[in-house]
Write a structure and sequence with these properties.
Blueprint: E1 22-31, E2 34-44, E3 49-53, H1 60-68, E4 75-80, E5 83-84, H2 90-95, E6 98-100, H3 113-121, H4 129-134, H5 137-155, H6 173-185, E7 191-195, H7 203-220, E8 223-227, H8 231-237, E9 240-245, E10 248-253, H9 255-259, H10 262-269, H11 271-275
Length: 276
């Protein structure tokens, strides 16, 4: 995939702090008698794109759910920057700058594109529940400021201004995935988890999404961790690749190192990928 021809013009990013390093250290995860993750360790460098690959059932989504806080590991820890967030609730991790998208689109049906995206930024608002219910002047001002920021810095960035008032139900799949990315960006992330961001997309949609991910990383300085099966995109945009198989890390390194690793070839890529 050659993204140079479709490089986007500079954009102003959200008012976010620089990307945080993310570390997974010796994480074990069990579901009854199933050992889903076994001593998984890796790091995502700040402001870089790190990819997790592996065959179906390797434990990729389990890693994401553990980092996000949906699963509690039996052992090990998750570090966001210098802070151990292993026991920090999901919403509190979001407040610390962790945002994610999902493998299956999780938009709010019946709401518009703009309404869905604004929901991503509501945790940044200072007003509490009572002020929101009263919808006083301060709340209205904060709501208008959030809308202006979303329209200026997220909708324009992802080139979806023409659909911002449409219901997400009416959008084609590729645009729904882009809206989900926009909602995550509205959270002002310092670490962004992308769970199969181009799954089910055609080639043009995949190239557009890859370009946007690179823009987020390069122009906004966000740390990106992604799970993806599209090896062409993974090898093109990632600076570091982690390979899982049966819940264990079997390789970690640059795309070139991982592509040539004997265990990776045997377990996942196949000999044709090395020759490509």
């Amino acid at each position: 995939m050659d993204l140079s021809a479709s490089a986007s013009p500079p954009h102003a990013g959200l008012d976010t702090a620089p990307g945080l390093p993310l570390a997974v250290e010796q994480v074990d995860l069990r579901f009854g008698g199933i050992h889903a993750l076994r001593g998984v360790s890796f790091a995502a460098a700040p402001g870089q794109v790190t990819a997790i690959i592996g065959p179906n059932g390797a434990g990729k989504t389990s890693v994401f759910n553990t980092i996000s806080g949906f699963y509690r590991p039996a052992a090990g820890r998750i570090l966001l920057g210098a802070e151990d967030v292993t026991h920090v609730p999901v919403h509190a991790r979001a407040a610390r700058g962790l945002a994610r998208t999902f493998q299956n689109i999780a938009l709010f049906r019946g709401l518009s594109v703009l309404e869905n995206i604004k929901l991503g930024g509501h945790h940044t608002m200072k007003g509490g529940v009572l002020s929101a219910l009263a919808y006083g002047p301060a709340t209205r001002a904060e709501e208008m400021a959030l809308r202006a920021e979303v329209e200026r810095k997220v909708i324009d960035f992802l080139e979806i201004d023409h659909i911002r008032h449409q219901s997400v139900d009416a959008l084609p799949y590729g645009l729904q995935k882009r809206v989900e990315l926009a909602r995550a960006l509205a959270m002002r992330p310092r670490v962004l988890l992308l769970d199969e961001p181009v799954a089910g997309m055609n080639r043009e949609e995949t190239e557009d999404m890859a370009r946007f991910i690179l823009d987020v990383q390069e122009e906004w300085g966000v740390t990106v961790l992604l799970v993806e099966h599209d090896m062409g995109m993974v090898m093109d945009i990632s600076s570091h690749v982690v390979v899982l198989n049966f819940g264990e890390v079997i390789a970690s390194g640059t795309p070139a190192q991982v592509r040539a690793h004997p265990q990776v070839v045997e377990a996942y890529l196949g000999a044709e990928a090395v020759a490509a």
